[in-house]
Design goal:
Blueprint: H1 3-18, H2 23-38, E1 52-56, H3 61-70, E2 79-81, E3 88-93, E4 99-104, H4 108-115, H5 122-132, H6 135-138, E5 139-143, E6 160-162, E7 169-171, E8 176-178, E9 181-183, H7 185-189, H8 200-203, E10 206-207, E11 210-211, E12 218-220, E13 223-226, H9 228-240, H10 243-249, H11 254-268, E14 273-276, E15 284-287, H12 289-317
Parallel strand pairs: 1-2
Antiparallel strand pairs: 1-3, 3-4, 4-5, 6-7, 8-9, 10-11, 12-13, 14-15
Helix pairs in contact: 1-2, 1-3, 2-3, 2-5, 4-5, 9-10, 10-11
The chain binds zinc ion (2 copies).
């Protein structure tokens, strides 16, 4: 089969799964063909299917094309997503150990334009050019050294272990050990979902409709001054980088949010936020290291209290 015929048939297949023809599809197909050739894999979906792992560095159109051509996928654990935001992928031959990283060249776009200067639609011209441009105009390749850990390899899960805080199970050694406890990553370092530490669905267990609830607040000289509400406000500021936005997210008026912050600063004797004026977003605010440290400690206490309440509840009320 001529290599251009091969491109066309691979492209047709990837467009089917991806949903449209785009420059990313052409680039991804070309990238995969080059990578596979470099590591000596001829039949990625057939007899070589167990010998191939691909690391991708971006979650964009080309990624689908790479999945389509190589047959590698997250679910099979043969595709590893490294969130670098770079148009690059590394192809690993598990049998020989040869690994080659293919990086799309930044100037390939400009070069592509020179191929069909007569075409009015720049995007169409780019699509056509990417089909026929020589590999070395499109990509840089480099041999790299990769060691894949046992727990990252395809095959049966190595282990399953329960998180001491949320009670959810963690597979393949993703747990974190801290102070003699086993934690899942969201419990140890915070998750991508909001209020990982406070989600009632996660933290509260129920038995025949019975539930255990616990509440924590801090007092200073007999006066309550910090609880979940302020913790949420501070976390929102941390996430949004703006008091205004954080107030909206926590359903507070700006005045009220600002009042909370000022009161905290006064009573704790530390600065809570650093305000930045100007900029294209009209200024913003970040938490000071001191208050971040305070918030982290408050979280730890809250998590521990909840975990203890849950486990006592389970112990005493049983199943
Ligand atoms: Zn696309
Ligand atoms: Zn957990």
């Amino acid at each position: 089969m001529k290599s251009t015929d091969r491109i066309e048939s691979l492209l047709e297949e990837s467009v089917k799964t991806h949903g449209h023809l785009c420059a990313g599809q052409v680039l991804g197909v070309r990238m995969s063909m080059l990578g596979l050739r470099e590591i000596g894999i001829e039949d990625p979906k057939g007899r070589d299917r167990k010998n191939l792992v691909v690391y991708i560095e971006i979650d964009r159109c080309a990624t689908d094309a790479i999945q389509s051509v190589t047959g590698c996928s997250l679910g099979k654990r043969t595709m590893k997503f490294m969130d670098y935001g770079k148009m690059a992928a590394t192809f690993v031959n598990l049998k020989t150990g040869k690994s080659v990283r293919v990086l799309a060249k930044e100037d390939s776009r400009t070069k592509a334009r020179e191929y069909f200067p007569e075409m009015e639609n720049r995007y169409e011209a780019q699509l056509e050019a990417y089909r026929i441009m020589p590999d070395d105009e499109l990509f840089d390749t480099a041999c790299v050294d990769i060691k894949i850990n046992r727990e990252d390899m395809p095959g049966r899960p190595l282990n399953r272990i329960k998180c001491d805080l949320c009670g959810e199970y963690v597979q393949d050694c993703r747990e974190v050990r801290r102070g003699g406890r086993v934690l899942c990553r969201p419990c140890a370092v915070g998750g991508y979902y909001n209020n990982a530490f406070f989600s009632p669905a996660v933290m509260q267990i129920s038995h025949n409709g019975l539930e255990v609830k616990s509440k924590l607040w801090l007092e200073l000289e007999g006066q309550p001054f910090f609880g979940r509400g302020k913790a949420l406000l501070l976390k929102a500021i941390d996430q949004c980088g703006s008091i205004n936005q954080a107030a909206k997210e926590t359903n507070l008026s700006y005045r009220k949010a600002w009042g909370y912050i000022k009161a905290m600063e006064k009573r704790l004797g530390i600065r809570v936020v650093e305000c930045h004026a100007g900029g294209k977003n009209g200024g913003g605010a970040t938490l000071t290291p001191e208050v971040k440290d305070f918030l982290e400690k408050y979280d730890l206490v809250e998590k521990d209290i909840r975990a203890a309440a849950n486990s006592k509840f389970r112990e005493i009320f049983g199943r």
